[in-house]
Amino acid sequence: MGVRIQQQPFNIGEETEALRHRFANTGAIVTFVGQMREIQDSQPLQSLYLEHYSGMAEKQISDIIVAAKQRWPVWGIEVIHRCGVILPKEEIVFVGVCSEHRIDAFRACEFVMDFLKTEAPFWKREQSEGATRWLEANPDDEQQKHKWQEPE
Amino acid sequence: MINIVFFSKYREEFGQQTIALEARGSVSEIIDELRRRYPDKTGFLSDNKLLVAINHEMALITDSLNDGDELAFFPPVTGG
Questions:
Q1: B8 touches chain A (CB under 8 A)
Q2: For all residues of chain B together, what is the average pLDDT?
Q3: How does pLDDT run across A65-123, given as a tens digit for each residue?
Q4: Residues of A in contact with B8 (CB under 8 A)
Q5: Sign (positive or negative) of CA dihedral A94, A95, A100, A102
Q6: Chain A partners of B75 at a C-beta cutoff of 8 Å?
Q7: Parallel, antiparallel, or unpaired: how do β-strands B2-6 and B70-74 relate?
Q8: Phi and psi of B2, rounded to 5°?
Q9: Which residues between 34 and 63 in chain B have a beta carbon less than 8 angstroms from any beta carbon of chain A?
Q10: What's the burial of A99, exposed, middle or buried (CB within 10 Å: 0-12/13-18/19+)?
Q11: I want to staple A38 with a disulfide (CB 3.0 to 4.6 A). Which of A88, A113, A127, A141 is the partner?
Q12: Long-range CB contact pairs, B43-50, < 8 A, 24+
């Protein structure tokens, strides 16, 4: 288990099914899928281009996975993040966590996404009709990350 | 020699993703050198949201670079 960064789409069902059978005594599988929206600010989107820092992206996500596994007793965490051109409704990111109990899987999955959004070196460029723009980081994402600093 | 890489809108403004620079010192000194050599392509180095990484680790502009290091400049990330 670990990190995959790839241009080609992935199959959510196949990835989830693989998680179910990978570890003994898995009682809970929690998955998150982020996908490309069709509309932004009332404008239909044509595509998204995802640039990434090869090498550092894998390392940052691996470090996030290690931090999550140190914090919660989970059996495994899988992260898949696409790069390159994404089309509306296509999947962008997959986070899958399997554990014995659901609370740990839910927490670890949310933790991984909150840190991935603010620390993994990817950048999105939106293409709509007649306009191209690099997305700005969302301050709400930093706020989401800070909640993990508080004791549970 | 230091390998410098640029990402996202910084890459577009600089016009290329990577350059090799015969230089040493702190990130701040490298920034000054880039501004001196490429004054028309380095406005982004004044962005108050500028982020830097050295050898795939987040860094500060006061950090020093060694020969063979890779220095990256990028804006805040937007993945996920």
A1: yes
A2: 96
A3: 999 999 999 999 999 999 999 999 999 999 999 999 999 999 999 999 999 999 999 99
A4: 51, 123, 125, 134
A5: negative
A6: 123, 134, 137
A7: parallel
A8: -115, 135
A9: 49, 53, 56
A10: buried
A11: A88
A12: B43/B13, B44/B9, B44/B10, B44/B13, B44/B14, B44/B73, B44/B75, B45/B73, B47/B10, B47/B75, B49/A137, B49/B75, B49/B76, B50/B10, B50/B75
Place of tokens 């690099």: A134
Axis crossing angle, helix A102-119 with helix A56-71, rounded to the nearest 10: 150
